User: Which sequence fits this backbone?
């Protein structure tokens, strides 16, 4: 037994973690396969067509918008020099700190019929009033979500553009191609794996979004799953809808893995970076102006509006449940973070010990959670927990005990586990990244110097992976704090968090009161972004 | 097509002078090479010819057209030059064939077929660059550069990423291919063996200056400056004295300077203190010689050995010896010079004194 653990321990651990993280997905897929014809018929006739149309419109719109925004901004800041270029490279990542559902309620509050903008227009320029498009519409959702997630495309496209070096561009010029032809035949095609990688992230985020579309009452698959569960109390209907989403997500997940592999082929050896083309005069002003415009729209206006509302409702909110909400949020956050990081470090060590494709595959499978929409994960977990609790109740009855209700369901155990499944990637990647620098030759060198066991861990391993663990902790904590649908659906009674409170307040249109919790989330979200941009500067 | 560089100057701001009054001509159909230590400015020169950099002053003419001068700057895409990059710069998203046909290639099937055949890429047309070996990628880069039938082919360290065996066979192939397609070529390398094997003319550069532009043979046997002598091949510098009768006296012996001795053009006066440069193959172990030297070390070189001797004055002399007799380091031996091909330069002190006088 110990022998088995020693040789196969790594693979077994990795496989176990993969199994745990995949359980909700498997449950949903199975329930999708053995669909009950009545429910399925109802869904197919009345629910699916609308959800499908809305989801397709939303995803297509957001992908097109973020592609244009992200690629154009990345192209400007990667290949040109203009006033504020270095600053914009960082500022344009800031919108990532604003969760899409916060962005959504800010713009709804601003541009709603009763909101300040339209009221002012009606008052002063009544002739223009009819020309302002309705914010509660497909284009409104598309705009709001795009503003929240375009930095993914911007970030990925930038690293794609920067990885290619000047010689390919020069090769194209030496072959008689002009600047424009080079841009469309070489520069953009070569950055395609990165651009697609960013767009896939956007796709996942949009598909998984629950909060923003709820604010707009725009029904997509995620809200469909939620309503099926919450409105009809039908876990079956919910998981059948979810199974469709799971299939889509798996396809995207494979597409992303493919893109990552392609990036490796496209990024070979070291390159001399291309020289920036200076933009002076009108083009320079246009470039700075465009970057500022996007930044103000995606970060400036939302943050200012949040401050304004917070001031208006400060006394009401700070006295109410704010302290309690903070406590709940951070308790759940830290529990989730501890669970996630323990698993992440365990998985990283398991892969290091096993060093074969099986453990690698298990690790990759364990990462599927981040592609899973929160509502789907929650529904899957409710199903799995229901089964487990049922089994436990009958086991207890067999042993002579009589359990009245489930053990896990409604307990504090469930949420940290879900957070782990959802955010394992965020915790695992930095730890694994640091771990790859820690070669087995180092262990061997240390053992020749009689440093083994705990001493090896504390004096060699820990200093090397400390940074990765710290980065992972921050990323995971912030993600959990911002997380909404899973917490909403699985929280034990009385465990409202900031995100849940925002959902409740915004579904009643109480924008001002939702501002303080939202501002708290935005401030928390700024932490990893500042670290990210700071580390980027160090590398430069 | 010929390539003419006329008094090219270029300074990186801020930074060193990378081209200092450089003038040379590559005749149609010739393959020329620029050699020199890294950072000497040879790559910048190549990039100025390609149009990626602009000279501060001077002009560049390719064939009939001046592509760069004080008021002309033809952009790189209109210079009709091909370029092979050090990292090949193949387009990873295109197949071999798509890479080759990327430029303005006429749909001339026979030309393309010949190109593919000559570069040995038959059967690889549909592969992607990452599926090829380093040598194959090199060939694709070459084929892509010459597919649009450029007038001039520029190559920037084209073989530096390959192993030695492949480097030699490929450099021969490239020479053959250029001749086959009648293309004028200019190669930049830090490897003089490569330049010797391939090039008709070689330019030696150091710190932005073109020290000498000549055939390989002349560079080796008739270096114009001590820097060229020291950079190309091996050899020893010894102090010497030229008498008014033309006899050269060195620590290893005296010999007449009339036959075969290289007197650089700059060396005008004909007599006085000089620096004598001697190739190792011109030094031989001579038991009868009055000049005795201590053998410091002796390296086995396959065909023969390379000895390093130290004279009583402290100067070191290297000598190749093809005889099977083995010498013992630490012992003294007689050495002599055959006077055929020594080069004479100003003695450093003399040069300084002349400068002061001037």
Assistant:
């Amino acid at each position: 037994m110990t022998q088995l653990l020693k040789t196969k321990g790594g693979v077994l651990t990795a496989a176990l973690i993969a199994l745990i993280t995949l359980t909700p997905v498997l449950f949903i897929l199975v329930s999708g396969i053995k669909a009950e014809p009545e429910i399925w018929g109802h869904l197919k006739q009345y629910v699916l067509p609308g959800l499908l149309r809305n989801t397709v419109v939303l995803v297509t719109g957001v992908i097109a918008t973020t592609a244009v925004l992200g690629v154009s901004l990345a192209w400007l800041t990667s290949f040109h020099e203009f006033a504020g270029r270095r600053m914009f490279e960082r500022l344009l990542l800031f919108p990532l700190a604003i969760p899409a559902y916060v962005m959504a309620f800010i713009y709804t509050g601003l541009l709603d019929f009763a909101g300040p903008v339209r009221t002012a227009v009606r008052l002063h320029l009544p002739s223009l009033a009819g020309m302002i498009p309705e914010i509660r519409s497909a284009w409104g959702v598309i705009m709001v979500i795009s503003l929240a997630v375009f930095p993914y495309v911007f970030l990925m496209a930038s690293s794609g553009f920067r990885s290619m070096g000047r010689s390919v561009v020069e090769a194209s010029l030496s072959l008689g191609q002009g600047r424009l032809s080079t841009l469309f035949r070489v520069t953009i095609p070569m950055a395609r794996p990165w651009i697609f990688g960013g767009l896939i992230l956007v796709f996942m985020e949009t598909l998984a979004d629950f909060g923003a579309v709820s604010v707009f009452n725009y029904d997509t698959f995620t809200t469909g799953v939620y309503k099926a569960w919450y409105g009809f109390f039908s876990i079956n209907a919910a998981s059948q809808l979810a199974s469709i989403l799971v299939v889509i997500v798996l396809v995207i997940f494979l597409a992303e893995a493919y893109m990552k592999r392609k990036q490796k082929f496209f990024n070979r050896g070291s390159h001399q970076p291309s020289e920036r083309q200076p933009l002076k005069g009108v083009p320079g002003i246009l470039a700075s102006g465009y970057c500022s415009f996007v930044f103000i729209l995606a970060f400036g206006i939302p943050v200012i509006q949040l401050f304004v509302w917070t001031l208006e409702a400060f006394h009401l909110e700070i006295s109410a449940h704010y302290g309690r909400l903070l406590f709940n949020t951070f308790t759940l956050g830290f529990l989730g973070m501890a669970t996630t990081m323990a698993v992440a470090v365990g998985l990283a060590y398991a892969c290091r010990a096993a060093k074969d494709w099986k453990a690698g595959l298990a690790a990759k499978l364990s990462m599927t959670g981040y592609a899973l929409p929160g509502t789907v994960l929650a529904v899957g977990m409710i199903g799995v927990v229901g089964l487990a609790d049922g089994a436990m109740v009958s086991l207890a009855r067999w042993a002579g005990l009589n359990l009245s209700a489930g053990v896990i369901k409604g307990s504090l155990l469930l949420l940290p586990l879900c957070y782990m499944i959802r955010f394992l990637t965020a915790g695992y990647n930095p730890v694994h990244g640091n771990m790859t620098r820690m070669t087995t030759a180092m262990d061997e060198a240390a053992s020749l110097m009689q440093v083994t066991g705990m001493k090896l861990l504390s004096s060699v391993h820990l200093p090397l992976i400390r940074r990765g663990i710290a980065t992972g902790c921050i990323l995971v904590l912030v993600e959990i704090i911002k997380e909404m649908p899973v917490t909403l659906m699985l929280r034990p009674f009385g465990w409202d968090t900031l995100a849940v409170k925002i959902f409740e307040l915004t579904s009643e249109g109480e924008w001002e009161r939702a501002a303080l919790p939202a501002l708290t989330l935005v401030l928390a979200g700024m932490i990893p972004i500042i670290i990210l941009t700071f580390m980027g500067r160090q590398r430069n | 097509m010929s390539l003419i560089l006329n008094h090219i100057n270029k300074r990186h701001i801020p930074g060193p002078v990378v081209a200092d009054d450089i003038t040379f001509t590559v005749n149609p159909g010739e393959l020329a090479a620029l050699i020199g230590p890294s950072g000497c400015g040879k790559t910048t020169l190549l990039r100025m010819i390609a149009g990626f950099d602009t000279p501060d002053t001077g002009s560049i003419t390719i064939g009939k057209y001046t592509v760069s001068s004080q008021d002309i700057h033809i952009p790189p895409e209109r210079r009709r030059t091909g370029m092979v990059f050090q990292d090949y710069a193949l387009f990873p998203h295109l197949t071999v064939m798509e890479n080759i046909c990327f430029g303005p290639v006429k749909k001339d099937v026979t030309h393309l077929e010949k190109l593919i055949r000559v570069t040995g890429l038959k059967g690889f047309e549909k592969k992607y660059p990452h599926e090829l070996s380093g040598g194959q990628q090199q060939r694709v880069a070459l084929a892509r550069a010459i597919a649009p039938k450029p007038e001039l082919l520029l190559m920037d360290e084209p073989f530096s990423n390959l192993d030695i065996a492949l480097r030699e066979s490929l450099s021969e192939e490239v020479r053959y291919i250029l001749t086959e397609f009648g293309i004028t070529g200019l190669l930049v390398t830090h490897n003089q063996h490569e330049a010797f094997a391939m090039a008709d003319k070689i330019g030696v550069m150091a710190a932005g200056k073109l020290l000498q532009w000549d055939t390989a043979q002349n560079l080796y046997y008739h270096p114009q400056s001590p820097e060229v002598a020291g950079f190309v091949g091996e050899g020893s510098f010894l102090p010497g004295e030229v008498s008014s009768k033309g006899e050269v006296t060195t620590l290893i012996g005296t010999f007449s300077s009339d036959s075969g001795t290289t007197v650089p053009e700059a060396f005008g006066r004909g007599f006085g203190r000089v620096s004598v440069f001697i190739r190792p193959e011109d030094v031989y172990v001579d038991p009868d010689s009055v000049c005795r030297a201590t053998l410091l070390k002796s390296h086995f070189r396959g065909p023969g050995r390379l000895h390093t001797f130290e004279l009583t004055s402290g100067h070191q002399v290297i000598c190749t010896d093809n005889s099977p007799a083995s010498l013992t380091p630490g012992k003294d031996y007689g050495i002599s010079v055959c006077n055929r091909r020594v080069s004479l330069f100003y003695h450093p002190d003399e040069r300084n004194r002349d400068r002061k006088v001037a």
